[in-house]
Design brief:
The structure holds 2 protein chains of 2 kinds. By secondary structure, chain A is α+β, with helices and mostly antiparallel strands. In chain A, 36% of the residues lie in helices and 12% in strands. By secondary structure, chain B is α+β, with helices and mostly antiparallel strands. Chain B has 19 helices and 22 strands. Chain B is globular and about 105 Å long. Classes of the chains: A alpha+beta, B alpha+beta.
Chain lengths: 248, 771
């Protein structure tokens, strides 16, 4: 395959970036999108050019590192996958592909396609946990049976990989799907109920402080989420928030 | 490598007084060797072959090797002295090192095993080790490098206890550590299924699965704390799979006869890591953990023989930083990426562990590598990494290749589909060879069996390196069961298939989806193609029972250490070990060491040791950036990977290992003269980070091959072609029932071997049979 790539290049967080065009040839349809970028980088290095920086690690769709906005879509044209699972067979010979970083006010660019998602970490610091110490004396794991449906829903919410596709996709740069997923996971489990009010108030507050926008129920985040996290989680978070605010 | 002072001596075998002046003895070249770690010195002698009578020996040997040790009273004194001079001149001390080894069990390896019967050892140990009071914990700093299951859980627990923790990861968030990719599950001796499981059985399975090359005491402790891990994780909100009664569900994994594996679909590692991450977050919010994301450890700093800090590079701006603490914990994972292609994440590396090794931590059993049988086969040269298909799939998938070569050819050229091969023309080779365990034999056994079939020409893809993993019979079995439950017609094939697929989707949905995205085939309709790939490294930094390395104050936990899995790890045991070390072992044992540090006060990071270590790291980075060679880092990494896979992979032999050592050594020289790293030190520079990691892999690879060469037996993941039965099973040897702990002395091929003998008092060492 022969392709034209238009890629966002930005030296560092202070400098201004721009789209740069690259021609690339001999791309196999079995390559992953990141392997195609590897090929381009190998060439750039030998041509004394600066290789393109992008975040990636596990390359099997679970670590949540990769974060490319390809042809206007988070993680590219395919559904329910991350960029590293996107294969070149989804493109046609001669295509022009636009590659940008995930863009949001709360996700500043570090270099090229690499962004700083530490805002997500800070939201988790504000309440994304259950306060239990490691003691070896916690009660037996089976002492509280959990309704299978709740357990499964908690699991589905917990599959979030924290990649930020929801934020990048949302016209408001809202992080509600991410935050909602974490709050749902804990609010569905008996272990998480004790501090549910405090958690939702703190996490939502931190989310606002980080500069993420609000939800206007467009549902684009659910469509682009590589793990298919459901909008129900946002609804559940809003219910929890309302409950907690009333209690307060 | 310091220059050694050489002298001569006679090779006395009895006390000097027992010799008469006319006795003739061999003259040796002798020198001192100082052990990096213990600072103890031992004398090493090397025969010259020249003999001399006692009366002709110049006993004044202390001076140096320039003198003539044979007196003129010997008629051949001139000739002899000339030979000796020449021998000293040509004396290759580096070469000699490679032949030095410590007999049976090394004095330098103190495992600190507690006394008492095995089931009481850990309890006794906890009762007798020293503790640090809560007030003193506030004054003690601990550095933890790596935030996977072991590192993350250790950080959280140490901070809960009151220590000040500094945590480091090279990823942009601790949640992205590679533990997250673990799929199948975590073992625990809960016996919730009532199928006869117990702590002893988990211990037994793990030692046997490791082919009797792990330390009994550590494994028993692991089995003991395993049940607590599940309790802890559930309390943290980890959503394990449950049945309709609301209780936890289990499945079975390779090499065992019970169901003791807890799981969260195919994402158990993710859920457990997020649990540890959430516990960390709570402590970060409290200020007890200071988290450093996008920081890579480049060296460990030793002050007065103790680990006192690390040098890190901030990967965003390239600045080097000095961090000090009272103890350093390495939780930096395994080194599977030395093979270039592995199921490890792209960033997984050996740098932290290797730097510790260079500073004096012994590296144990580097050649014990797990090659996982069920990975997606390589599709071409562009491949950057391999993807694992969880071992849990072998619960329901059956592995086969065609019986007839003409069917193989027909499949390869596309004229036949695997579903068209009739049952009697299929060779379910694991079920055939190992009827007792069938498709659930341990990983090393399954991998070798697949390789054997593919080497015999039965591989089912274009490259001839793939076998089938088939779910058709499970789909039918589950479908019939569902039809009965739902009161539907159990002879309606379409309906049964539909029901069966639903069950399979529920159990393995995300794995099937992952497969389909990569291979572009629907595994519900046609069997998966799989082939073994490098997955886990059982070897690692040598640690004692307290998980301390041979450097006081330096600890290694999780995959980074060597202790629990012997020569082969059982499925779902990595998560168990990581969390056991981090939640339940290290936080206790580290107190024993730190109890001596309560009055030390803060550790300064501007001492000469820190400055020197920083300078060394800086010089190395400078060298890489200024090298301006012609070849990229990946070029060398790929070549190293090829050598490793072809010569140190699933089957090894003496000749190949010897040539691997030479080739890697040569490649390393080429790397340092030819590598090209673009950009500068003081910026976000992924190529530079990669170059540093590959440089360390190029040293580790050589030690790996040396260890494999030295271990003249087959055991677990280490298979030497010279040592196998007629049926091709591994032949273990009694004289190799030890841990190889290597001491760094310069070139990796010259590393000195220390042996830790392994005793099995609670398990009978038997032929490992899964038939």
């Amino acid at each position: 395959m022969k392709l034209t790539l238009k890629i966002w290049r930005q030296k560092n967080s202070e400098s201004k970036g721009q789209m740069v065009s690259y021609e690339i040839d001999n791309i196999s349809p079995d390559m992953s999108f990141l392997e195609m970028l590897d090929v381009l980088n190998a060439r750039l290095i030998l041509e004394d050019d600066d290789p393109i920086s992008f975040d990636h690690d596990c390359r099997e769709g679970i670590c949540g590192s990769c974060s490319l906005f390809i042809n206007g879509q988070a993680h590219g044209p395919d559904r329910r996958i991350t960029t590293c699972q996107l294969h070149m067979r989804k493109f046609k010979d001669g295509d022009t592909i636009y590659v940008e970083p995930f863009r949001a006010k709360a996700f500043p660019v570090i270099k090229d396609l690499v962004i700083d998602r530490s805002a997500f970490d800070r939201i988790q610091h504000s309440g994304g946990y259950i306060s239990v110490n490691t003691s070896g004396n916690t009660q037996d794991a089976n002492s509280i049976p959990i309704n299978k449906e709740d357990a499964d829903n908690a699991f589905d919410a917990a599959t979030c990989i924290g990649c930020g596709a929801c934020v990048a996709t949302c016209k408001n740069s809202s992080a509600m799907l991410f935050v909602g997923a974490k709050i749902s996971q804990y609010s569905l489990l008996p272990q998480g109920k004790t501090e549910a009010s405090r958690r939702v108030l703190n996490m939502v507050n931190q989310m606002d402080l980080e500069g993420f926008g609000n939800c206007s129920n467009t549902g684009a985040c659910e469509v682009e989420c590589p793990k298919g996290i459901s909008l129900d989680n946002i609804a559940r978070m809003n219910r929890e928030l309302l409950k907690a605010s009333l209690k307060k | 490598m310091p220059k050694k002072k050489l002298t001569y001596s006679l090779n006395y075998r009895r006390p000097k007084s027992e010799y008469s002046p006319d006795d003739e003895l061999t003259i040796c070249i002798r020198y001192y060797h100082k052990c990096n770690q213990t600072k103890k010195t031992k004398i090493i002698k090397k025969s010259t072959g020249v003999r001399c009578m006692l009366k002709d020996w110049n006993s004044d040997w202390h001076k140096n090797s320039d003198r003539s040790p044979v007196k003129s009273s010997d008629p051949f004194h001139k000739k002899k002295n000339n030979i000796l001079k020449k021998k000293v001149k040509d004396f290759d001390i580096q070469h000699l090192y490679s032949n030095v080894e410590n007999e049976s069990s090394s004095n330098y390896l103190k495992s600190n095993l507690p006394k008492g019967s095995i089931d009481l050892k850990w309890t006794n140990h906890k009762n007798t080790i020293n503790l640090v009071s809560p007030a003193n914990k506030r004054n003690i700093d601990i550095i933890v490098v790596g935030t996977g299951l072991a590192g993350g859980s250790a950080c959280a627990t140490l901070a809960e206890l009151g220590y000040n923790v500094k945590a480091f990861c090279f990823q942009d968030s601790p949640r992205r550590a590679h533990s997250i990719a673990a799929q199948g599950g975590i073992n625990a001796a809960k016996n919730y299924q009532g199928d006869g499981d117990s702590v002893y059985r988990l211990f037994y399975d793990t030692v046997k699965g490791g082919d009797y090359r792990s330390r009994e005491e550590n494994v028993y402790r692991l089995a003991e704390v395993s049940a607590n891990i599940i309790d802890q994780c559930v309390a943290q909100g980890v959503p394990f799979a449950r049945d309709y009664g609301g209780l936890l569900d289990n499945r079975s994994f390779g090499g065992v006869l019970v169901s003791r594996t807890f799981y969260a679909k195919g994402q158990t590692g993710q859920q457990l890591l997020l649990g540890a991450y959430s516990a960390m977050n709570r402590q970060i919010a409290r200020g007890k953990i200071k988290m450093y994301n996008r920081h890579e450890m480049l060296d460990v700093v030793i002050v007065d023989g103790k680990a006192r800090g690390i040098i890190t590079r901030n990967l965003i701006n390239g600045e080097l930083e000095r961090h000090s603490a009272h103890a350093v914990v390495l939780a930096t994972g395994g080194y599977g990426n030395v093979f270039y292609l592995s199921t490890n994440a792209m960033g997984s590396n050996v740098t932290a562990a290797w730097k510790a090794h260079r500073r004096g931590a012994f590296f144990a059993n580097p050649c014990f590598t797990q090659i996982h049988p069920t990975c997606i086969p390589v599709s071409g040269d562009h491949q950057s990494k391999l993807t694992l298909m969880s071992e849990s799939l072998r619960n329901d998938g059956r592995i086969w290749v065609p019986k007839k070569l003409e069917d193989v050819n027909a499949i390869r050229n596309g004229s036949k589909k695997p579903t068209e091969i009739s049952e009697e023309d299929r060779d379910y080779f694991l079920e055939r060879r190992y009827p007792a365990f069938g498709n659930l034999v341990p990983r090393d056994v399954a991998s070798r069996a697949a390789k054997e079939r593919c080497d015999a020409g039965f591989g089912v893809n274009k490259t001839g390196e793939a076998v089938y993993l088939d779910f058709a019979s499970s789909i039918l079995r589950y479908g019939k069961e569902q039809a009965r439950i739902k009161g539907e017609d159990e002879n309606n094939n379409e309906l049964i298939k539909k029901f069966g697929k639903e069950i399979i989707r529920k159990k393995y949905g995300n794995l099937f989806q992952m497969y389909e995205k990569i291979v572009d085939q629907n595994p519900y309709e046609t069997p998966m193609m799989i082939y073994p790939a490098v997955h886990y490294t059982m070897g690692g930094i040598w640690v004692d029972y307290n998980l301390m390395t041979t450097i006081p104050g330096l600890y290694a936990i999780g995959e980074a250490n060597f202790s629990d899995h012997g020569a082969n790890r059982l499925g779902a045991s990595a998560l168990m070990q990581g969390l056991a070390d981090g939640y339940f072992v290290l936080p206790y044992t580290i107190g024993d060491y730190l109890s001596d540090e309560i009055s030390t006060g803060p550790i300064a990071n501007d001492t000469k040791e820190f400055m020197l270590a920083e300078k060394e790291a800086r010089d190395k980075l400078d060298m890489l950036v200024n090298n301006k060679g012609t070849k990229s880092v990946d070029y060398f990494h790929k070549r190293l990977g090829k050598i490793m896979w072809n010569k140190c992979g699933m089957a090894r032999n003496k000749k190949d290992l010897q040539s691997a050592i030479a080739e890697i050594s040569k490649l390393r020289k080429e790397f340092w003269s030819e590598v090209k790293v673009p950009g500068s030190q003081f910026e976000f520079n992924e190529e530079l980070a990669k170059a540093g990691r590959v440089a360390d892999f190029l040293e580790l690879g050589e030690l790996f091959a040396k260890d494999a060469l030295n271990r003249e037996e087959s055991c677990g993941g280490h298979f030497r072609e010279e040592y196998q039965t007629k049926e091709g099973e591994a032949t273990r040897k009694k004289e190799f029932q030890f841990v190889s702990a290597w001491e760094y002395v310069g070139e990796p091929k010259n590393a000195i071997l220390h042996k830790e003998k392994l005793d099995y008092k609670n398990i009978e060492v038997k032929e490992r049979s899964y038939k």
